[in-house]
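This week, look over our next protein:
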Amino acid sequence: MIKVTVENYSIIKETIERAPTFVYSILDQIIEGAVYADNESIHSLLFQTKSGIYYVYGDPSSKKVISKLAALLQESIEESKRFTLFSYSDEWSAKIEQRLNDNVYKLERYNFSFDINAFNNREKRDSLDYECIKIKQPQIDRCLEFDNQYYEEYWDSTDNFLEKGVGFCLQHENKIISEAVSIFKSHQFAEIDIITDTNYRGKGLASFIAEKFLDDCLLNDLQPCWDCDIDNYGSYHLGVKLGFTNPVKYTVFYKSTINQLTM
């Protein structure tokens, strides 16, 4: 396969119709990654993050892409590295499952569209009894879930996230009880990841912190993105409550020794 040069990233951005947020993060060079094409006409594409997350796009009949994926999967097994593959196409998923079936599991997830009118017109809480602050290094050092290792995994480094990412948290008596951060971000999109302390659930904290995240996205001309596993009913209903609509299923394949996505 051919490794696409950075000079062609803008052309690819104009070509792809729909892709995970991390694909745009690569194309905007916000995170490290690579783009491979089956040939110079770019009929089929394979996107790869530094941490081992992949996405296939284009003509699913490409044998070169499937062979490349098989080689990458084998490499990840031998070197104990991550292998997580996104597919938005039933045709691609069938090809992947046929070729990689013995070494991967699969799960189905939803990708939502954002309805800004639904978000703006919903009833919002103006305040809580907890302090809401933007995430910086001191908050990461005593985080609830999203620690330095998390940012190294998805952002290449904590410094890169602090410079280019989006994140808010709620504090109670100097303890962080809820966090909302951009697991991936590009110049156009920001995908949200949320966690709330189990002792503080049922108080509307996830909804409140998500609103702060979404307000910040809109203020900075970013389109918020919401994805979840199809059986994550809590995340599904929270997304709908916040104005995310039209859930579309897609498939994620992951190496059998790797836990399911935390996103």
Notes: Residues 63-79 form the longest helix (17 residues). The CA atoms of residues 33 and 158 lie 17 Å apart. Residues 258-263 have pLDDT under 50 and may be disordered.
